[in-house]
Amino acid sequence: MTWTQRPVMVRGARLVDPGEGLDEVGDCLVADGRIRALGGRGDADGAQVIEAEGLWLVPGLVDPHVHLREPGLTHKEDIATGARAAVAGGFVAVAAMPNTRPVVDSPELITYVRMRSDAVGLCRVLPVGAITRGQAGRELAQIGDMAAAGAVALSDDGQGVQSAGMMRCALRYASAFGLPLLLHEQDDTLAGDGVVHEGAVATRLGLAGQPREAEEAMVLRDVHLVERNGGRIHLCHLSTAGAVQVVREAKARGLRVSAEVTPHHLLLTDEAARGYDTRAKCNPPLRTDGDRRALVDGLVDGTIDCIATDHAPHTDDEKEGDFVSAAFGISGLETALALVLTHLVDSGRLSPAALVERMSFGPCRVLGLCRHRLREGAVANLTLIDPGVRWTVEPQRFHSRGHATPFAGARLKGRSRGVFVDGRWMAS
Ligand SMILES: [Zn+2]
Fold first, then answer.
1. Cα-to-centroid distance, 265 and ligand 1 (Å)
2. Helical (H) or strand (E) element with 104
3. Which of 1, 302, 330, 354 has the most CB atoms at less than 10 Å from its CB?
4. Would you call 310 a catalytic residue per the annotation?
């Protein structure tokens, strides 16, 4: 991976930005961090030229949900390896969840993540602070101080906020500081020790299951709390048809509720765990084909605002062994775009413009970032996509330290060729 600050001319790409009503073939010249010329045939004028015929240049992709494991769990991943994986996957910015060791629950740790992101100098790594101190669910974290230090959102991701009273407090505090709550909706009394979806596959494998209600009960609770108290919630990694329907109805009532879905929940079912394949062990679990289709429908009709990877790297050791003790989580940054291109865009379910909506604009809106755009004068945060290249997922070649993916060996069509992050070109 290389980057340069020389002017760069992207020559003859399909320029797609639904926010600007743009879908045409032309050039894009980036210099001094900004888009200097756009459309038509420009003069390269000493710039590095990237021949981009047949490629798409789009507003930079953003992943609103990754686990980069730093501080403290850097045997799994760190900000450098995670940011490299993000750039390889076509992302210009990622939101890093705070379930590290220690938990990111103070302004000092928010500053630490920001400084590491700057020092690494790849994509932007945006710190998410914890909702509760130590993510223990008992008292609020230093929300105001973390907001001042640059937290973009708050989350106890990895687990649900079990106490409704605590969630109500968090909603009121967070909205005072303009921060969204990114919610992992899981009622532990319903999820129990479940390691897969509660259903026929769990029964066949003899594994404890998590029922859909573990997610849906908490989604209903939190939508109701927003209805009564105001504030803004974003529901992480939806997994059930019922949860999609609750979000659809909440939006129809005008509530400030947004949602995301992962590529694995869009494309796989609990059948992926047959043979006790720990690569398919994730939380929330993969569910049935009915749930899967409802998630795709929700993504297509806009009920679900964004695609998020929930990139959750672990060491190979932690993902091997028996199904019950293996870690939950899938390494997702380096396959997400290609999976979406192969299974949703190539098949016509999502247009290229809709891909931009769900993988750039939606995440920017959730995280309170300025929308990335293809417009002269704008800061260049862009992704260059090769929609036609065919490749095979080989996890041992990932930049991420996490190699566990149920998509290992998959034949995919399309991937990122590189990104501009604040005007700096980095080949994927
Ligand atoms: Zn989660």
1. 13
2. none
3. 330
4. yes
